[in-house]
Amino acid sequence: MTSAPYDLTAVRADFPILARPIRGKPLVYLDNGASAQRPRAVIDAERRYAEESHANVHRGVHTLSQRATDAFEGARERVRRFLNARSTREIIFTRGTTESINLVAQSYARPRLGPGDEILVTHLEHHANIVPWQMVCAATGARLVPVPINDRGEVDPADVRARLNSRTRLLGIAHVSNALGTVLPVAEIIAIAHAAGVPVLVDGAQAVPHLRIDVQALDADFYVFSGHKLYGPDGIGVLYGREALFESMPPWQGGGDMILHVSFDGTTYNELPYKFEAGTPHMSGAVGLAAAIDYVEHIGLEKIGAWESTLLAYAHERLQAIEGLRVIGTAAHKAGLVSFVVDGVHPHDLGTILDEQGVAIRTGHHCAMPAIEFFKVPATARASFGLYTTLDDIDRLADAVVGARDLFR
Amino acid sequence: MDLKDLYRDVILDHNKRPRNFGVLAPPAIGAKGHNPLCGDQLTVYVDLVDGVIRDVKFEGTGCAISVASASLMTEAVKGLDTAAFARLHARVHEVLTQHDAEVPADLGKLAALGGVREYPARVKCASLSWRTLESALAGAHNAVTTE
From the candidates A128, A291, A367, A372, which is the catalytic residue? Predict the structure, then answer.
């Protein structure tokens, strides 16, 4: 495939920021793994909400409050369909992936953990799927156990099986590695964990922009993601959870909206999903997220995934032809991102030099220090693709990397 | 903005062949510096005799800006007493951060760090070694972090 299975030129025109020159050069935006850009449809949906429908949700009898409630609950239904959840009672709006994981750590894991219990994660997790578990382990005396990765950056399901035991209380696992691009065999791993009676949280932050997610087919217990990596707004994210698990969990934060009745003798909590949504939620964010889901589904996640596979293959070909460049993370099944290092050029210098060419990449440890340190490098450069990335973008990336290498010769 | 203003020949040279790279044995004092954002880690060793920097070395890994800044620093501070180091540190800090300040002619090779101020994200890289040496001189054995 040498051209995208959708009209790439038209799609690019939907994203106003792509037309803005950066340092006098046309922008090549290859930092989608950190945050994707927003199409006009998302920007307009948020603006329309503010201009036409804004008030607080679930509170007023007046018209605008009802409109805001309809918009917010409509967004929840949109997310439910996107994930193929059974019910909107299983869809909680949060600030993002990080908050979703912290909610599960504090409300699901913490009350169930005691000294000697174990939580499993993998060696390639983002810090957001490590640190919340370390915090509950510190509070309860439980242990956080990492499942190893191989030198291609893959997780072998057999290694998960080998670490499950009668003390394992939860498995937290990335669907796609943000640092290496590995797509993990989550359905297989979930089946293995379930056979041992262990529930699974899947960190889908890097997966939702690239793969069609069906939480029922995956049989995930919790699935979490952020709006801003899916071409939606920042500050909004999702926690999917099985209804029976949510019912068994106490609220995490207390406040308005999550109650039915409050008195100083005691408080009755609201039903799902409101039990986990204390305070005024990010209503315009939810509306924007729903617009983003409409946008990617209108193009089609299968088509987006197919195009990103083409981009990935081309990027590997162009980058690996550069003398002194090493790709970090060479899993057989990868999503659209490439982490790499170049002999003699520190990733941080590479990032500055590429920026001068209008090429935006991420450099550093990508909030996944154990994964990066596994490859015995202090940092990597990471180019991550989006649905609007072109083959020309990859050429400009590769040319700029060659220029950087030559500057440091 | 021209990249060659940031990556001047002096910077590239000191990155490729850092001066005074290595370890000083005790009683020299060592201090560690860490820039968590980019993973730069370096240790600065200083042999302080009667309040004068008799020798200084550094080791570690980092980007070109942090390695070159450390290397240039080790050349510039030998023989200075702690008060003179503090004055030089303050002047370098100004060169790194003051957008419109004139780079003083008497700074010598350190003037090569003048391109950094156009790149605010890189100021931490250039200042890490200086803050680490400051901490070593203060006898603080705690790691310096730029965050």
Answer: A367
Query: Which residues in chain B have their CB less than 8 angstroms from residue A344's CB?
Result: 16
Residue with tokens 């999550």: A258
Share of chain A above pLDDT 90, in %: 91
Read off the pLDDT of each residue in B22-43 and give the average, rounded to a whole number.
89
Q: Closest to B3 (Cβ–Cβ): which among A345, A348, A356?
A: A356
Task: Give me the domains of chain A, ranges plus CATH numbers.
Answer: 8-30+300-407 (3.90.1150.10), 43-297 (3.40.640.10)
If you measure CA to CA, which chain A residue comes closest to B118?
A352
Give the N- to C-terminal CA distance of chain A in Å, as an integer.
36
B54 touches A at CB < 8 Å: no
Measure the CA angle with vertex B129, ends B126 and B130; round to 5°.
90
* Cα distance between residue A158 and residue A155, in whole Å: 9
Q: What is the 3-state secondary structure (H, E, C) of chain B?
A: CCHHHHCCHHHHHHHHCCCCECCCCCCCEEEEEEECCCCEEEEEEEEEECCEEEEEEEEEECCHHHHHHHHHHHHHHCCCEHHHHHHHHHHHHHHHHCCCCCCCHHHHHHHHHHHHHHCHHHHHHHHHHHHHHHHHHCCCCCCEECC
Domain residue spans in chain B? 3-145
List of residues 6+ apart from A360 with CB closer than 8 A: A22, A27, A28, A29, A30, A31, A354
Position with higher pLDDT, A267 vs A170:
A170
Contacts of B64 in chain A (CB under 8 A): 345-346, 349, 408
Under 8 Å between Cβ of B65 and B46:
no
Query: pLDDT tens digit string along B68-101?
Result: 999 999 999 999 999 999 999 999 999 998 877 7
Provide the ipTM: 0.87
φ/ψ of A41, rounded to 5, equals -60, -35
| CATH pick for B3-145 out of 3.90.1010.10, 3.20.170.30, 3.40.1370.10, 3.40.50.620 | 3.90.1010.10
Per-residue model confidence as pLDDT tens digits over A327-336: 999 999 999 9
Would you call A348 and B3 a contact, using CB atoms and an 8 Å cutoff?
A: no
- Report residue A256 as tokens: 């308005």
Q: Where are the beta strands (DSSP E) in A123-236?
A: 143-147, 168-174, 200-203, 222-226
pTM equals 0.94
Quick one: which of B44, B125, B34, B101 has its CA closest to B77?
B44
CB interface of B with A, residues 82-121, below 8 Å: 119, 121
Active site residue A137: no
Q: How close A89 comes to chain B (CA, Å)?
A: 39
CB pairs under 8 A between A and B: 51
DSSP A362: E
Q: Give the residue from chain A lying closest to B2, CA to CA.
A: A356
Per-residue pLDDT tens over the stretch A243-270: 999 999 999 999 888 888 888 888 888 9
Which residues of chain A does B1 touch, with a Cβ-Cβ cutoff of 8 Å? 23, 356
Kindly state whether B60 is in contact with chain A, defined as any CB-CB distance less than 8 angstroms.
no
